[in-house]
User: Which sequence fits this backbone?
């Protein structure tokens, strides 16, 4: 369509400093506008580059580079520049203090419970920033990292609690599908084996995002609620993705491809970005993080997703949002937010013991019609 083309220089910006922290991607994808709080968040997140040498995980080594935040898991992690970290902390605190009226106004019009949560989170955020500004010259890196992560979590809490209503109307012809109008957290328990072959059960936590993929996230929550995935084997593990979800003899209605892009208030339904000549636009939920969660589909049919999903294993630092082969072609609906490294150990034949929705079921709306087993 006319007007969608970008210049070469604009497209090149897409490869600059991709965010590969799943929690940060989720914070930035919230349908909330608060320039003041965004400034606080930006300064806090910039601190990630000062832990362990980089904010980007360029590889995986079981002894050093684990996780997606950039902090090393060795016994003696370090802060590369405590002076720069404290400078960022002062800038974050200054942004919070300067924009306090705007940030406090985010609770206007909310019920008393949400308003109280925001007030408490703002107070806790103030204290965390004071703690960061007041750090000694040789602090414990783990403690500092935990402070930074807590402060970022508080920013996310403020933003999510400030959402007054679901931000858009799902098209009428798609209203019959199950929907997740908000977010939900799931714990997935998988029975696998350790390096010595001894059976073990590991748990990974995923956050599914209905703000940006309400139908896709709704399908996953609906299947989890019905225990569809319980006692199902991992069906593919090739070093690039881990996939499961196919149950022999069971067919379900398919759901449309669902892609949310930046600067757009509603998802694009039914087409890949390539099919509508928008392949170079940023997606709200990119394939940038280890443990990115997406629905599988037939490569020749954009609207063929039903029950199969996959985790991304590769960190796409070299092929960031807008320039890799997955963004805009598959519907991302969440991220692994805890124990993502365990995904590397999942093998074909390992068994999903259970998928349990532990938070957010109040945001789920069951299908009015369709989405049921045939």
Assistant:
């Amino acid at each position: 369509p006319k007007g969608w083309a970008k210049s070469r220089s604009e497209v090149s910006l897409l490869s600059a400093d991709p965010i590969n922290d799943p929690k940060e991607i989720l914070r930035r994808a919230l349908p909330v506008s608060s320039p003041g709080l965004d400034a606080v968040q930006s300064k806090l997140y910039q601190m990630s580059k000062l832990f362990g040498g980089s904010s980007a995980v360029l590889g995986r080594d079981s002894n050093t580079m684990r996780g997606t935040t950039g902090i090393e898991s060795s016994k003696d992690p370090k802060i590369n520049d405590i002076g720069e970290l404290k400078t960022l902390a002062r800038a974050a605190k200054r942004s919070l203090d300067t924009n306090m009226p705007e940030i406090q106004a985010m609770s206007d019009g909310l019920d008393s419970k949400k308003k109280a949560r925001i007030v408490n989170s703002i107070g806790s955020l103030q204290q965390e920033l004071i703690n960061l500004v007041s750090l000694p010259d040789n602090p414990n890196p783990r403690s500092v990292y935990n402070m930074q992560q807590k402060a970022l979590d508080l920013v996310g809490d403020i933003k999510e609690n400030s959402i007054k209503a679901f931000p858009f109307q799902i098209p009428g012809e798609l209203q019959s599908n199950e929907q997740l109008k908000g977010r939900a957290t799931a714990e997935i328990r998988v029975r696998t084996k350790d390096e010595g072959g001894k059976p073990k059960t590991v748990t990974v936590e995923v956050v599914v995002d209905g703000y940006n993929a309400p139908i896709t996230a709704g399908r996953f929550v609906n299947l989890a609620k019905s225990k569809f995935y319980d006692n199902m084997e991992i069906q593919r593990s090739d070093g690039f993705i881990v996939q499961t979800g196919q149950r022999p003899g069971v067919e379900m209605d398919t759901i449309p491809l669902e892609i949310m892009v930046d600067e757009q208030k509603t998802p694009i339904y039914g087409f890949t970005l390539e099919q509508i000549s928008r392949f170079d636009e940023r997606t709200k939920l990119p394939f940038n993080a280890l443990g990115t969660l997406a629905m599988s589909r037939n490569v020749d049919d954009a609207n063929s997703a039903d029950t199969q999903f996959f985790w991304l294993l590769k960190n796409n630092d070299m092929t960031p949002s807008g320039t890799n082969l997955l963004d805009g072609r598959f519907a991302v609906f969440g991220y692994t937010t805890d124990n993502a490294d365990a995904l590397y150990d999942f093998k074909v034949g390992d068994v999903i013991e259970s998928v349990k929705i532990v938070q957010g079921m109040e945001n789920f709306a069951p299908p009015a019609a369709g989405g049921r087993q045939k």
In short: Confidence is low (pLDDT under 50) at residues 1-16, 53-75, 370-374. The chain has eight helices and 13 strands. The first strand starts at residue 179 and ends at 180.
